[in-house]
Amino acid sequence: TEDRTTCADVRELIEQTVSADISVPDLAVARNHLESCASCRDYHRALQADGDRLAVYADSHAARIDVLRRRTIAALTDTPIVRPAGWRRFARSGPWRTALAASLAVIVFMAVFFGGDGESVVWAEVYETVARITSGRFRLEDRTGSGIRSEQVFSERGLSHRTYEEGRLVESLHLDYEDQVMTYLAYPLELAVKLEFEAELMESYTDRSPDKLFAFLMENEFEDLGHKRIGGRRLQGVRVKDAAFMAERLDRAELELWVDPKDHLPVRLEVRGEVADGARRRHVRFQDFRWNIDVPDGEFQPEIPDDYEVTRGPRLKLDEASCLEGLRLFADITRGRYPTTLAYESVRVELWRGLDPDRWEIGGLIADMFQIRVACQFFGQLIADEAEAVYFGHAVRPSDEGRVLLRWRVEPDRYRVVYGDLRTETVSGAELLRLES
């Protein structure tokens, strides 16, 4: 039969289909109208998209809301709630049902938007707090049994990173943002490498600043881990599993951040990941944070001992040409292979495994490694920019002239393609499908 239901009549029913709070007859009316009305179908799709986004947002607060819900039930009934399911049985009967529903709605709203009972973290406030930090010092510990410990210091002027093995200083890296110079010292080898960076590449290193380091709080979906006592302090944590912004360093990564709810400052950051295509696991703990400290400028301009061998490398840029040069160097050093992935920790492992030690002087090799790292940084930037970047180094060799080694989107339906012989061109989406098949 002809559907004579008007859009105004059916809009409320369409809204009820999204919330799943609708009777079977009303559902039939709504579906019948949607089949014949394009305008209402668009309205329905928009509602569903909004609902999906709200569901994701609510899930990130689920642990905290559940705790607040149980506390509210316990206060209303004057009895302790032990099992999470208890409130559902109570809510299904008795004179409290209407008041209870209203109370829970207010608690959920307060928990999500205002931080609930004062002991829970509003993660946007954590991000805002660390974004105001201008300097700091923290320690890193490799939790995989290597005995490696590191210390990192940063300010608005630069960054330094010192690495210790069994308590002995073995290497340090110093970045001077103002002069755009990087100095690397290998103490057992009595070796120093100095490199100049173009502005965009140096900016990629400033991402180690707190507002960049903890940007995942605003950019990624996360799981609220509730509260946990660490080092005698009651902290609140989140977990991020889709750590795509770490694609430059790790094949896969997962982060856990623990924060003091009183001052909204990070106390511990755990990074777990895989490198070398899953063959090795990494677990690094960031801890002992000290924020807004005095850092002398000399921290980023180290004095090189007179008896050290000093190698000066090329001026490095973060662009396509530098990425290609890094890939060419890797293939040259390893005698005809590309790295399996472009996560730097994996690349470094593969590089040392495939190295021909008779062909390379150590200072020049370290300079080349930084050039190769630029390829990883370029790829990581493409991932962060959501440019549909895909790398096929596990299957493509320098001799594969017509096979796609790397590609990314440069504009709608236009893709930049790098072939196995490092030749490049820009192609359409249809051409890309043909090439990759």
How would you sum up this structure, described in words?
- This protein has 437 residues and is α+β, with helices and mostly antiparallel strands.
- The chain contains 14 helices and 16 strands.
- It has helices at residues 7-19, 24-36, 38-59, 62-77, 86-91, 97-114, 123-131, 199-205, 210-213, 216-219, 320-333, 344-354, 362-384, 429-436, and strands at 136-142, 148-154, 158-165, 168-176, 181-186, 191-196, 223-230, 233-240, 252-260, 265-275, 280-291, 309-312, 390-391, 404-411, 414-419, 424-428.
- It has a 12-stranded mixed beta sheet with strand order 7-8-9-10-11-1-2-3-4-5-6-12.
- β7 (223-230) and β8 (233-240) form a beta hairpin.
- The protein is globular.
- 28% of the residues are buried.
Briefly say what this structure is.
The protein has 14 helices and 16 strands. It is α+β, with helices and mostly antiparallel strands. Helix 11 packs across helix 13.
Write the layout of secondary structure elements.
Elements: H1 7-19, H2 24-36, H3 38-59, H4 62-77, H5 86-91, H6 97-114, H7 123-131, E1 136-142, E2 148-154, E3 158-165, E4 168-176, E5 181-186, E6 191-196, H8 199-205, H9 210-213, H10 216-219, E7 223-230, E8 233-240, E9 252-260, E10 265-275, E11 280-291, E12 309-312, H11 320-333, H12 344-354, H13 362-384, E13 390-391, E14 404-411, E15 414-419, E16 424-428, H14 429-436
Parallel strand pairs: 6-12
Antiparallel strand pairs: 1-2, 1-11, 2-3, 3-4, 4-5, 5-6, 7-8, 8-9, 9-10, 10-11, 13-14, 14-15, 15-16
